[in-house]
Amino acid sequence: MRRSCLRCILPAMLAGAALLIAEVPMPQMKTVEPDTAKTGDILTVTGENLDKNAVAEVYLTDEKNDFKAVITEQSPGTLKVKVPASTKPGRLALMVLTTGKQPRLIVEPVKVTIE
């Protein structure tokens, strides 16, 4: 009896999870130029699903401190952000806040060195 219930419930749960994931395309950053920057510089990020429908905010993070960057341009394949004045020097990852009903912070595999 218990196994038959699980066989019914599990597919429904997986389908529900798939709908939540499919709600908003997942942003994916692939490159950042320049790879070394100073506060006030503009970073050009390339990737997929970087438009306003998928990305609400961008941060630079050292995983202890997050620095909100100002988005200056945004399209599906390119994002331009200004390095905030409060950013501490070091090797920082880029992190996005997704849009949608359940926004999530996602640390991207793209890093930049701030001098």
Word description of this protein:
This protein has 115 residues and is of the alpha+beta class. The protein has one helix at residues 2-22; strands spanning 28-33, 36-37, 42-48, 55-61, 66-74, 78-82, 90-98, 105-114. The protein is built from 1 helix and 8 strands; from the N terminus they run αββββββββ. An 8-stranded mixed sheet has the order 1-3-6-5-4-7-8-2, with no helix packed on it. The protein starts with a helix and ends with a strand.
Helix content estimate? 10-25%
Largest sheet: 8 strands, mixed
Overall shape: it is globular
CATH homologous superfamily caption: Immunoglobulins
- CATH top level is Mainly Beta
- Write out the strand line-up for the largest beta sheet, numbering strands in chain order: 1-3-6-5-4-7-8-2
Portion in strands: over 45%
| Oligomeric state of the chains present here | single chain
Mean pLDDT, rounded to whole units? 87
How many domains, as an integer?
1
Number of helices: 1
What is the level-2 CATH architecture name? Sandwich
List the uncertain runs: 1-6
- What's the CATH topology label? Immunoglobulin-like
Structural class estimated from helices and strands: alpha+beta
Radius of gyration: 18 Å
Give the number of DSSP strands. Answer: 8
Order of helices and strands: HEEEEEEEE
Distance between the termini: 63 Å
